[in-house]
From TrEMBL:
Catalytically driven reaction(s): K(+)(in) = K(+)(out)
Species for this entry: Collimonas arenae
Lineage start: Bacteria, Pseudomonadati, Pseudomonadota, Betaproteobacteria, Burkholderiales
Bilayer topology: Multi-pass membrane protein
InterPro entries: TMEM175-like
Name used for this protein in its record: Integral membrane protein
Primary location: membrane
Length: 191
């Protein structure tokens, strides 16, 4: 089957996720900087989650660009990814509202971990369908960045209870790692 509906549905869900996150940010009561300063944890968690959502949207787009068709297992793997992405607004809000407390920061890591695993499952489902010699398989290769990301999330979750700022720093570092352009798929497709 064609991939158009899956792409359109995924784009719509991701747009709603971003909309929910921004609507969760409450306008400060007051007109001075002190009122604005109270909102900084919510705003910082929103920025981090917006970046993560953008990273997944971008990579999802590139990955689907490298394939010609999808099947039932791919549809379910994609829904699995969207499920975990849809929990980002909740985890973001809880973490920001509670000023990066230990448990909300750990839960944020759980959501990132499960989203990373779901993305891996989706990529493997697509590779299984298109074959180990497909453009996508060649582009993804060993997926070192993906594996490092999942490992970092898994490490940051328990670290949240020892030092939440180090855990949060790990989430930021993984996001920065993905912001550095990853041209694997573009190189394979345009060659």
């Amino acid at each position: 089957m064609g991939k158009g509906r899956l792409e359109a549905f995924s784009d719509g869900v991701i747009a709603i996720i971003i909309t929910i996150m921004v609507l969760e940010m409450k306008v400060p009561h007051g007109t001075d900087l002190a009122a604005l300063q109270l909102a900084y944890p919510v705003f910082l968690s929103y920025i981090l989650s917006f970046v993560y959502t953008g990273i997944y949207w971008n990579n999802h787009h590139h990955m689907l660009h490298a394939v010609q068709k999808i099947n039932g297992p791919v549809l379910w793997a994609n829904l699995h990814l969207l499920f975990w992405l849809s929990l980002i607004p909740f985890a973001t809000g809880w973490m920001g509202e509670n000023h990066f407390a230990e448990l909300p920061t750990a839960l944020y890591g759980v959501v990132l971990l499960m989203t990373g695993i779901a993305y891996y499952i989706l990529s493997r489902s697509l590779i299984r369908m298109h074959g180990d010699n497909s453009q996508l398989a060649q582009a993804i290769g060993n997926d070192v960045k993906g594996k490092l990301s999942v490992a970092a999330y898994a490490l940051a979750i328990p670290l949240s209870f020892a030092n939440r700022w180090l855990a949060l720093g790990m989430y930021v570092l993984v996001a920065i790692m993905w912001l550095i352009p990853d041209r694997r798929i573009e190189k394979v497709i345009h060659n």
